[in-house]
Write a structure and sequence with these properties.
Layout: H1 6-9, H2 15-28, H3 31-41, E1 63-64, E2 72-73, E3 85-88, H4 95-102, E4 113-115, E5 121-123, E6 130-131, H5 137-142, E7 143-148, H6 160-177, E8 186-188, H7 206-215
């Protein structure tokens, strides 16, 4: 499960990246570049909110349950941050427990999706926003995080329904953002640099999972 990391990834100011962009615009002196960057950054101005459709989901059939806004950062992906990765997590607990902590502003972390053992999918953060799930700011900005109900040391938690539903979800994400369906771009939390997590663990069947993702018609080659 995404760890508590609000201090590491909670900068909601325009920050150094925007200042660098502003410097580049001034140095280049290009009206086109300035207009493009301003289009990406206008909604970060204090008091400006990017229009959103309440309760909208990115995966058809998912149930929307909002995470606390303390556990993610508003963004405009893939326009401001390109998405080229899916990170697989295991909750180390129940589905209900994961939903509860992702709604807790004190937790400081949440994933975009949770997949239940019966295959039900809940979306808690929009894909265009940056979820605090990977324990690495750069990976958070470039990835979509998917939690799976269960424990890493209990292979029976990874049901047929869970694998199938998660594979469809990942295939859809890969198709949306032209992400290659391979193990360089679909990774476990344990593979994120700097993390101390071990999920999805030795019992997660990567060969089976990747085969299922590739079988979905919408999957990116």
């Amino acid at each position: 499960m995404g760890e508590k990391q609000a201090s590491a990834d909670g900068d909601r100011r325009i920050g150094r990246r925007a200042l660098l962009i502003g410097g580049a615009v001034a140095a280049v002196g290009s009206a086109v570049l300035a207009r493009d960057e301003l289009a990406r950054l206008w909604w970060r101005t204090p008091g400006v909110e990017k229009p959103r459709v309440e309760g909208a989901v990115d995966f058809r059939g998912a149930q929307w349950v909002a995470a606390s806004d303390a556990n993610w950062r508003r963004a405009d992906r893939p326009d401001d941050y390109g998405i080229d990765m899916v990170v697989i997590h295991v909750t180390q607990g129940s589905f209900a427990g994961a939903v509860k902590v992702f709604q807790d502003p004190g937790h400081g972390a949440a994933a975009h999706y949770i997949v239940r053992k019966d295959g039900h999918i809940t979306q808690m953060i929009r894909e265009l926003d940056v979820a605090y799930h990977a324990g690495n700011r750069a990976y958070n900005e470039r990835s979509v995080g998917i939690e799976h109900e269960g424990f890493v040391d209990r292979p029976e938690d990874f049901t047929d329904e869970m694998y199938a539903a998660s594979a469809r979800l990942t295939a859809g994400i890969c198709a949306r953002y032209a992400i290659p369906v391979d193990r360089e771009h679909i990774i476990g939390h344990v593979e994120v640099p700097g993390t101390d997590h071990t999920d999805p663990g030795a019992h997660w069947d990567w060969e089976r999972y990747m085969r299922l993702v590739r079988k979905v018609p919408s999957a990116s080659a």
